[in-house]
Amino acid sequence: MDTTEDLQRSPLFDAHVSLKARMVPFSGWEMPIQYGSILAEARAVRSNAGVFDVSHMGRVEIEGPGAASFLDRLLSVDVPGLRIGRARYNLICNEEGGIIDDCIVYRRGEESFLLVPNGSNRPTVLEWLDRWAPGRDEVRIDDITLSSGMVAAQGPDAAGIIDDLAGEDLSSMRPSTIRESRIAGADIILTRTGYTGEDGFELMVPGDSAADLWRMLTNKGAEPCGLGARDVLRMEAGLPLHGNDISLLTNPYEAGLDRFVNPDREGYIAGDALRRVRDRGVDRSLVGFTMVERGIPRQDYAIMDGARELGRVTSGGHSPTLDTSIGLGYVPKGYTDAGTRFQIDIRGRSVEAEVTRLPFYSRKRIV
Amino acid sequence: MNPSDLRYSEEHEWVRVESDGSAVLGITEFASESLGDIVYVELPGVGAELSQFEKMGEIESVKAVSDLNSPVGGRVLERNDKLTDNPENVNDEPYESGWMLKVTLGDTEELDKLMTAEQYQAFLASQE
After folding, report:
1. By CB distance 3.0 to 4.6 Å, which of A149, A275, A350, B18 could disulfide with A210?
2. Cα nearest neighbour of A323 on chain B
3. Domain limits of chain B?
4. Domain B7-122, CATH among 3.40.50.10090, 1.20.1530.20, 2.40.50.100, 3.30.930.10
């Protein structure tokens, strides 16, 4: 998919072009990586509010009398026990315990769910759902990604902006909840979720109303932010990115995602494999580290203890909020405690780094 | 606009010949904009010998790391150490506070292998 003709466009494509965004191929979509400075966009989210086009994320409706038990077989969390109006972060693991994707599942009704997988994994997740789905009288799967748009309003000022636009009190919504409202004359699904480490909302909107919603958010002061800033922010918040930090070759336990896994449920297809991993323990773990000396760790650089390679950097970069360089990577037992030192091989230069407890950045919570 | 008193390389570095015969060099506005937010610049120390069009250092933006190639050969006389704490100067003022090295100019004929501002502008247009 090198040519832009193959790339999917978001309903906000024209809005990005008129803002002179730098558009790049991402997950099979042509998406804005930045409008101006990535660092300035990241700072806007930390201090005020930013708005991201995340229309490349999947939006899959799963409904029917068998929906809850179907998802319970595929997702790492207890789905029947999920209350209506609530969302849960979870993993989709294969029978070997490898991570096909991480996603959020929302319960909209007794028999109605919404699944939001990563954009790059949407085709794989849809195939996986199809493979395990019972008949249509039990479960209906409807991918609404292409007929809708999705934006994330994130930052300390995001809730106030959303309240203004909706004309109702949405800032009282609890974290990880979902509800419906009307903004810009359109029916909107709002969730109190995000991928930045800040408070905020994600909004799903019919495709033909997406541009109006975007304009209303930016007119209220939300800074347009690209995927470059999103990556910086999620790394600072210690949130893993599938394809970098977690993949089919990693399991949830070594990724430190234990709290999002319940392998003891009847019929859970990854249950056997994940119980084995849990009971045996892991040989390596995903840790966060901060550079002690100058240098920027990048994906796939070696993590060394002297001449011994401990593992590889899975994500890394400069953190504007902490004004230092940070990274994530897998290291063996004995190297996971905060304060443990090792070196990153930065293109042949050995640069000292130190294990840091995740998240690197955590917002001050007032409530 | 790219200053008319400079010479430019196809790798988007510039060089300015000073009245004392030394040369100051850096990267062009096009390069700094393409790289995006610059967060780290690694340059050789005073006394290091550079060869024309060969690697002299590295520059990292939020997104990626790139090699820096010297537009001329020579010996390093001075290094802009302000870039250590203020690498964003390369974005903000690539031809002023974003300068990188001052070098002795070994061979003035090397300048003939570089472009004028006008030629560089045409080169950029042809790359689009």
Report:
1. A149
2. B39
3. 7-122
4. 2.40.50.100
Q: Does residue A215 share a domain with residue A70?
A: no
Beta-bridge partner residues of A61: A114, A142
The verdict on a CB contact (< 8 Å) between B36 and A295 is: no
| CATH number, position A128 | 3.30.70.1400
Q: How many domains does chain A have?
A: 3
**Residue B47 Rama label (left phi>0; alpha psi -120 to 50; beta):** left
Residues of A whose CB is below 8 A from B65: 296, 298, 347
Assess contact for A210 and A149: CB atoms under 8 A: yes
Q: Indicate whether A41 and A68 sit together in one domain.
A: no
Question: Tens-of-pLDDT digits for all 367 residues of chain A?
Answer: 455 568 999 999 999 999 999 999 999 999 999 999 999 999 999 999 999 999 999 999 999 999 999 999 999 999 999 999 999 999 999 999 999 999 999 999 999 999 999 999 999 999 999 999 999 999 999 999 999 999 999 999 999 999 999 999 999 999 999 999 999 889 999 999 999 999 999 999 999 999 999 999 999 999 999 999 999 999 999 999 999 999 999 999 999 999 999 999 999 999 999 999 999 999 999 999 999 999 999 999 999 999 999 999 999 999 999 999 999 999 999 999 999 999 999 999 999 999 999 999 998 765 4
List the single best residue of A26, A39, A225, A293 to mutate versus B (max B Cβ within 10 A): A39
Sheet of strand B55-61, all strands in order from the earlier edge strand to the far edge: B38-42, B55-61, B65-69
Q: Say which of A39, A294, A347 has its CB closest to residue B62.
A: A39
A76 shares a domain with A216: no
Q: Which of A67, A134, A58, A133 is nearest to A101 (CA)?
A: A58
Predicted structure pTM score: 0.92
Instruction: Give ipTM to 2 decimals.
Output: 0.81
A50–chain B Cβ distance below 8 A for any pair: no
A38:B62 CB<8 A: yes
